[in-house]
Design a protein that fits this description.
alpha/beta, 11-stranded parallel β-sheet
């Protein structure tokens, strides 16, 4: 089982840097002592298995985890064989997280976003039936699901090694742990802004949230957490922004990470928002690693 450590880094904007700069950043994150880096995938970003291979190849210890690989971007055989390839080539250093993505993204790729939970079940069935003739990894890559809703979280408990929730609160983490039960990996993402000024910090947080506020999967999740319709317009209310993005000094960020860990998370991936994310991570290292 890969050693994720208690805290990792969700690369976020760093994955949009030129490849040489991104590789240097990940090498620096490895030197800082973080346990894992998490990479996303979209219709406009790097293909996630190739991306993971480039980061694994330029580092020595750190785990590379997908956050997430969309099931409509590849068939089950590609998911299974891609994970096996990386797990065999880089033992103990790759984690596969699968997700159903969001309707606007999936339809843009020419697919129909219908019955996403059933589609995930079918994808997992197809992966289980895949034949892999190349040398098998000594240990398969752990499989996580990008789970926000109760149904997907239950599927993660039944058919995967755990879950990687994104843009959630410690309260969601507690509920997720209750659903997953003991022994499953629970690795939520946590956005952070190392900034004491409320206006500046919230502006950076709202710029980040603007991509996600139109996505129904997220807004449904936040409503289940107790947020109201009035929390959603105009970039999100201060209450929503502060709940989803930790801001302030190093101790404030560390307290939010600790809240997830105390609620049952095994690992928290912090995503530094705003300018110079690497400098923020360097400042956070003494309190997070």
């Amino acid at each position: 089982m890969p050693n994720l450590g208690r805290v990792g880094v969700w690369l976020g904007a760093i994955t949009l840097w030129p490849s040489p700069e991104e590789r240097e950043a990940v090498q620096a994150i490895e030197r800082l002592g973080f346990g894992a880096v998490w990479i996303g995938e979209s219709h406009a970003n790097r293909e996630i298995f190739a991306h993971a291979a480039t980061l694994l190849g330029c580092t020595e210890r750190i785990v590379v985890a997908t956050g997430v690989a969309g099931i409509w971007s590849r068939d089950p055989t590609a998911s299974a064989n891609g994970a096996a390839t990386l797990a065999e080539a880089f033992p103990g250093r790759f984690v596969l997280t699968l997700g159903v993505s969001h309707a606007p993204i999936v339809t843009r790729r020419g697919h129909s976003y219908t019955r996403p939970l059933a589609a995930m079940r079918e994808h997992l069935d197809g992966m289980a039936a895949t034949r892999y003739a190349a040398p098998a990894p000594a240990e398969p890559a752990p499989l996580l699901l990008a789970a926000l809703a109760p149904g997907m979280m239950r599927l993660a408990a039944e058919r995967a090694d755990g879950a990687h929730p994104y843009l959630v609160t410690p309260e969601h983490t507690a509920t997720a742990r209750a659903t997953l039960g003991p022994g499953q990996i629970l690795a939520p993402e946590q956005g952070v802004v190392l900034q004491d000024d409320p206006e500046t910090a919230r502006a950076a947080a709202r710029q980040h949230l603007a991509v996600y506020l139109p996505m129904e999967n997220y807004t449904r999740c936040w409503r289940r957490l107790g947020f109201e319709e009035e929390d959603l317009p105009d970039g999100g209310s201060d209450r929503l922004v502060d709940a989803l993005v930790a801001w302030g000094d190093e101790q404030a960020v560390a307290a939010r990470v600790s809240a997830h860990l105390d609620a049952g998370a095994d690992h928290v991936s912090v995503q530094a928002l705003g300018p110079d994310p690497l400098a923020q991570l360097e400042r956070l290292t003494p309190v997070l690693t």
